[in-house]
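Table 4 source record.
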Amino acid sequence: MVTAARLARLEADADAAAESARQTGGAAAEAFGRHVRELYAATDRAERAEATITEVGAILTEAMRELSAAQQELLLKDIEIRRLREELRRGPVEGETLTVLLHHGEPHTIYASRADAYADTATHGAPADQVWQSCGERPAAAFTWRCEAFIYNAAPNGFRRLHMPAEKTLGEAA
């Protein structure tokens, strides 16, 4: 049976349900809006993090390349240090030569080989293709650059000039 009171109650229940649905729909729309804004913010943070990761990756790659080059350089220096220590431990060998590069007669640098001395003079302005000649009896100061070879002689315990100047007589001895 349908009575006017029952219809009024059903109508009131329907209005209350519609109002509740409107409120729930508004709350759902508001919650959806918040979630969309949070999603955009999270996406933005993720994109910035991804860009930062890419930048950090590039920096790390370059740092690793530089580290590898430095390690290679250290390895080569370590090998050279070991070689020099062994050479120092061994000491000079009979007949071993050194070359002293003289600049206007004054010692400039000592080299293990004449070729190294010649290469160094090129860095100081001497022509790379310069023909080096024997200096004869002229004084070392007469030359801009001059190479003198010294040979190790164990008897006097030291290096001596490879080419000694000819002895000059100073006159008659009394």
